[in-house]
């Protein structure tokens, strides 16, 4: 509902904001409990679009205010500082927004226009601008940079900010494949060297039975540590080692928060390694702990040339199962002795399809599914592979085969839903969607 008061002497933007404020007053008084599921879905989509358009309007206005020298009359040190005082934002936040607005107007006008149209969310816009700004303009040229930005804007219609960042990190594979590996290798070599040099660990005892610490380690090593701790916090392991309920709860029956579960797992990890409890050559704790039927193993995918270090593409960067990228040289080093399993393309392989000879998926199949699917295949779920079950698309009792083509990783909740007759399960390529076919009981 628009505000029909006389705003003839005001700037059109101020008139629009006044009308919007009035409309929001009416919207805030509307009961949301009466929304049907389809109406609520449409409202959520509309709100996300409005959020993007308002963010774009704010950025263009901030840039204009900065050019106009807002705050100069009061002696403010910057537009950001003056804006922070007017609106009670933090100074750091407002100053960063002013810089972001200036950068968008100067270098990323198409991204700002896409936000203004409501087709790109603010977090997606930030990912796109960072990915484009990270490109080596001196090596690829302005035309390739513009193509990369356009391609990422198109991808924003299908992927969220997290997936868009992964795609943005590899955008040269699409727009300049002839130099993509060389550019990424150079970047990874710099990052790995800096991360190794910055690795640190500090620990302080508080005198009351506790110690507090901080550490900085490379991302790849952090992935391995996380995999080991998550295996030790898995419900099956907790039940087997502690004899308690599969899901740990506190004295009040509430589920123990994840940071505390990981802290307890870290203590168990240290105890297991300390004092010679592990035989020489035995796998490190966590690599032998099964979660969801598969060891919490970090894998690295590379072809035979990358593994041997010979032939074309031998030094092309590789990917861990966690999504972390690393140089082929570091992957070869780790594959020799660290707790990491190489998934080799083009070399000798273990059988991945066993048909009706086994009911349960093998560890090798589970690792292959983890590589192919990345975790729970249900739409909108982000559970990692080590916490998922391997589900047969065609049930075993109905003649299903224990083959990769028939296997889908599902978290416990979605695995139960796949067997719930109240839902219709639709299988896509490495993706599963559900639709309720029976009304919800009230």
Automatic annotation (TrEMBL):
Q: Which Pfam families match?
A: DUF222
Listed InterPro entries: DUF222, HNH_nuc
* Domain DUF222, chain residue ranges per copy: 43-369
The source's superkingdom equals Bacteria
Where does the record locate the signal sequence feature? none
CDD domains in the cross-refs: HNHc
Record region (Disordered): 237-257
Descriptive protein name: DUF222 domain-containing protein
Q: What is the lineage of its organism?
A: Bacteria, Bacillati, Actinomycetota, Actinomycetes, Propionibacteriales
């Amino acid at each position: 509902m628009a505000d029909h008061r006389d705003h003839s002497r005001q700037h059109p933007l101020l008139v629009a904001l006044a009308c919007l404020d009035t409309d929001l007053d009416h919207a805030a008084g509307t009961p949301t409990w009466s929304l049907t599921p389809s109406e609520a879905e449409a409202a959520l989509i509309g709100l996300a679009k409005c959020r993007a358009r308002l963010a774009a309007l704010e950025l263009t206005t901030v840039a204009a205010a900065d050019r106009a020298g807002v705050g100069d009359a009061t002696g403010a040190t910057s537009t950001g500082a003056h804006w922070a005082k007017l609106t009670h934002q933090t100074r750091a936040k407002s100053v960063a927004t002013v810089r972001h607005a200036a950068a968008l107007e100067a270098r990323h006008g198409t991204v700002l226009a896409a936000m203004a149209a409501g087709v790109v969310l603010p977090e997606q816009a930030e990912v796109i601008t960072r990915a484009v700004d990270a490109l080596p303009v001196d090596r690829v040229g302005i035309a390739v940079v513009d193509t990369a930005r356009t391609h990422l804007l198109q991808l924003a219609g299908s992927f969220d900010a997290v997936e868009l960042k992964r795609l943005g990190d590899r955008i040269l594979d699409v727009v300049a494949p002839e130099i993509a590996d060389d550019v990424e290798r150079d970047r990874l070599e710099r990052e790995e060297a800096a991360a190794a040099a910055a690795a640190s660990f500090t620990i302080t005892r508080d005198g009351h039975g506790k110690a507090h610490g901080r550490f900085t380690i490379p991302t790849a090593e952090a992935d391995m540590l996380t995999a080991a701790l998550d295996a030790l916090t898995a419900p099956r392991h907790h039940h087997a080692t502690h004899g308690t309920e599969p899901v740990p709860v506190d004295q009040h029956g509430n589920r123990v928060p994840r940071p505390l579960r990981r802290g307890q797992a870290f203590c168990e990890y240290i105890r297991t390694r300390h004092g010679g409890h592990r035989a020489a050559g035995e796998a490190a704790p966590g690599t032998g702990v099964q979660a969801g039927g598969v060891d919490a193993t970090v894998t690295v995918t590379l072809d035979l040339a990358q593994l041997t270090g010979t032939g074309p593409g031998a030094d092309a960067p590789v990917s861990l199962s966690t999504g972390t990228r690393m140089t082929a040289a570091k992957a070869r080093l780790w594959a020799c002795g660290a707790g990491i399993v190489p998934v080799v393309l083009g070399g000798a392989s273990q059988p991945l399809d066993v048909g009706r000879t086994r009911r349960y998926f093998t560890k090798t199949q589970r690792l292959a599914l983890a590589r192919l699917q990345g975790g729970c295949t249900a739409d909108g779920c982000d559970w990692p592979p080590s916490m998922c079950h391997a589900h047969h698309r065609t049930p075993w009792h109905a003649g299903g085969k224990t083959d990769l083509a028939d296997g889908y990783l599902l978290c416990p909740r979605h695995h139960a839903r796949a067997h719930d007759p109240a839902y219709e399960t639709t299988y896509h390529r490495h993706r599963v969607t559900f639709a309720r076919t029976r009304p919800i009981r009230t």
